[in-house]
């Protein structure tokens, strides 16, 4: 503890959220943000080349939220993700090549090609799965919290959802139950302003999703979701509270998806100006600029992180494309556990 | 001598259906600390139908958990607990309320294993008191089991006796898949022989309750009991009916049905759920598609619930679902006239 | 709409009938009024006419099997009508049993056959058993709803095959084995042993021909007669000189008035009709524990047709003069040959005469035609030496044997009748 304090003190001009992250952690976070960005770009490119069978929901622009919230998690902790979940998987340490294999529907993918983009899971790695149903993961998180409590294993469950899901009954049922039972759950709302095309201002009577936390007697944090250090600092606090038996928290990361809701989105509900405004808030560049300003990384080091990420993604795509398709005779193999 | 006497007492031990379910829950929780029971009013209240009874006093509020009225939430909680190493048993107070939990049961519980390429399993049990006959009217009397039998990934049971209620619940708790058990409310007070030990009744095996040669009557849950009573009366009338208690509608024991129809050449399917698009339609079609089709000597007849919500008025309520008399009449007509 | 052809009720107390012969086959064109089949009741055989003009389709009734009155046995499709399954035969009365031997269709042709029977209502099980046994379902009459053929109809048909051992197939090798047992179960005593020794044994027993409907009727009625009516027999040898002379004179007279030439049988009938008036107990029937004295004298004449015994009736013979009787007799004989007689004309007599004289029979005893009380058996007329006025002379003589039901007729009553018969034949003027 004292060592860390001393280390933070060596970064006296930095805001405490950034100062709290050592170089190794920051580099890891940056690498993951790059991987997410590159993964999404490669996914989009694959789609445009006709290599992808279904649709996808890209999280370009939301990288700081995914990486920042998961940064304080430990290896055995759980996450539950959403349809816009590629970033959460990568942030949690998933291997891009197995993700791409899944994305391409290959037998070698995380889910053997049965789940695809919307259902990537890595149960052993603590990723209990992305979910195609808006709000679908929220009640599940309650059960995971019950498990953790019953098994007294000290873990934490972090569940992601969007602003749209906070209008689902499941959100309210889940927050209520998690709170009355003081479950070790961190609810992370990635508020990207739109539930598909529906502006949050038209869908919700309160200004912030986090305002709803008070109804369930838990802390609510509304924050700049494109600020990795800020997100990470709040998440750290919420995770610690959960792990110590203090109960759940609600974190709202205000962010923005640069791309449409899915590949069929024509962006009729928002303006080019708005998109450009948010692109200027690019969470990766913001972090890089801040690190350069404080002389913690030079441009070359930062460039190398990005290039390494690009290489990993390129080889992941290559790997995945070469993988075998599933055999139709195995169609019903995993419907039931034996 | 004293031990022999005890054994003899045990052999003829009778429990009610509700007591049998409770005994199974208690034994499962004693044997496996991963098992816990939760649902609305299952704690000190003892469950809306008294099934959980005193379990909260035996196992504490950590393992017999009262929940808020949040069917979707608790169904999802069962899923979450199941995929992370627990063996939750969830009670949906009235099976009608499962409509509020459909998302978690159908989209999540049923599909998680498949979607994740077989890398997760969802060992959860949902108990659902259902059925008509209690004057509870349209929103508390439905038989929705066929809905779930339509969903790959779920298992759907309908035990008809105290013996099966206990044995199938224990088998369901052991099962690594989501299992829904529809318990007919009118059966809770019925009594029957229930061995004291923790035994299992295999899922997916029908029981031939009565052997016969003239007509096969297939039913589950309370309809299996009504079919048995009807068969008794038919026998007095010179008609030998074979009664098959399905016990499990997904997976369904088609082999037992097929072998019986191959023998009797006539099939009557009885179920309380709405006749249209129901279990009877599935069984009829399975027979029609199979090689047993060639052994039919009369059309397959379905007796199912009326195309109506369950009414409040007791006369109407009875009229809305098949009764013993209806089974007797339908079976006799099928055998004697080759039609219903 | 196709026109339904039913098995008609042709007699008062008729419940079932048997189709003796089809005069048409599947697809034949018929005109309204054409004879399409012959029906046998428990009294007679009669022809049934086509109710409409068109093509015969879906012949469902085979010959020789009792069928309930009102059962559809075929359909007549009018011009341009597609041969589909007839919708709702009005009278869906049950058939008692069904079917007979059929053209042997090899099982390999099952597919073709199922096409041919696609218009039939039959359960899957019935079709399966029929297919396995090369049975054409068209020959089976369904007893189920709307004429549906069920398993019991098919197994009944298979049992009725004359040589079931040759045709009842075992199940195909490697098959379930269930079908053979089904057939056996359903057929009850369906034979299973197909050993060659047994087969040759069967061949040495000659040909087995099922009874025709009339044969069945005759068999059952005469058996019943012998079982219930205690018979006794009186025989008289009667000189036929006067009767022959009379017949000769009557022949000339009838020729003159345009009446048919009278036969000895007609003369005997005329004489019997006359004297029966004086012997009401001979023109009577036992009815429970009472005697029914008939108001009218209806004389049945036993005849042979195609090997079968039929008895057309001279209705109210007691009221007929000789030409009238000759005419009526000729009409009956003609009608019988042409098969135009109705069951009414073929039943219900009060007394019967059976004359086998033309076949050279000297004398015989006949079995009473129930519920009548007596029958007169007539032998041939032959010149025999007899004593007359102390001389042996040749005279035409014939034996008459009266069989009587002893429940209602005593020996003396019968003897008195025979005495009057002799007197009337030997001295016809007594009838004047």
From TrEMBL, chain A:
Catalytic reaction equation(s): N(6)-[(R)-lipoyl]-L-lysyl-[protein] + pyruvate + H(+) = N(6)-[(R)-S(8)-acetyldihydrolipoyl]-L-lysyl-[protein] + CO2
InterPro entries in the cross-refs: DH_E1, PDH_E1_Alpha_Subunit, THDP-binding
Needed co-factor(s): thiamine diphosphate
Signal peptide: none
GO molecular function: pyruvate dehydrogenase (acetyl-transferring) activity
Gene3D superfamilies hit by this protein: 3.40.50.970
Sorted UniProt keywords: Oxidoreductase, Pyruvate, Thiamine pyrophosphate
Annotated ranges, domain Dehydrogenase E1 component: 32-328
A GO BP annotation: pyruvate decarboxylation to acetyl-CoA
Role played: The pyruvate dehydrogenase complex catalyzes the overall conversion of pyruvate to acetyl-CoA and CO(2). It contains multiple copies of three enzymatic components: pyruvate dehydrogenase (E1), dihydrolipoamide acetyltransferase (E2) and lipoamide dehydrogenase (E3).
Name of the protein described by the UniProt record: Pyruvate dehydrogenase (Acetyl-transferring) E1 component subunit alpha
Organism: Bosea thiooxidans
From TrEMBL, chain B:
Magnesium in keyword set: no
Pfam families reported for this sequence: Transket_pyr, Transketolase_C
The keyword Oxidoreductase appears for this protein: yes
Bilayer-crossing regions: none
PANTHER family tied to this protein: PYRUVATE DEHYDROGENASE E1 COMPONENT BETA SUBUNIT (PTHR43257), PYRUVATE DEHYDROGENASE E1 COMPONENT SUBUNIT BETA (PTHR43257:SF2)
Transketolase-like pyrimidine-binding domain sequence ranges: 15-190
Keywords: Oxidoreductase, Pyruvate, Thiamine pyrophosphate
Domain of life of the organism encoding this protein: Bacteria
Protein known as: Pyruvate dehydrogenase
Signal peptide: none
InterPro entries attached to this UniProt entry: THDP-binding, Transketo_C/PFOR_II, Transketolase-like_Pyr-bd, Transketolase_C
Gene3D superfamilies in the cross-refs: 3.40.50.920, 3.40.50.970
Species: Bosea thiooxidans
GO molecular function term, any single one: oxidoreductase activity
CDD domains: TPP_PYR_E1-PDHc-beta_like
Cofactor names: thiamine diphosphate
From TrEMBL, chain C:
Keyword Transferase attached: yes
SUPFAM superfamilies xref list: CoA-dependent acyltransferases, Peripheral subunit-binding domain of 2-oxo acid dehydrogenase complex, Single hybrid motif
Domain Peripheral subunit-binding (PSBD): from-to ranges: 121-158
GO cellular component annotations of the record: pyruvate dehydrogenase complex
A Pfam family reported for this protein in Swiss-Prot or TrEMBL: E3_binding
Transmembrane segments: none
Cited InterPro entries: 2-oxoA_DH_lipoyl-BS (IPR003016), 2-oxoacid_DH_actylTfrase (IPR001078), Biotin_lipoyl (IPR000089), CAT-like_dom_sf (IPR023213), E2/Pdx1 (IPR045257), E3-bd_dom_sf (IPR036625), PSBD (IPR004167), Single_hybrid_motif (IPR011053)
GO terms for MF: acyltransferase activity
Name of this chain's protein: Dihydrolipoamide acetyltransferase component of pyruvate dehydrogenase complex
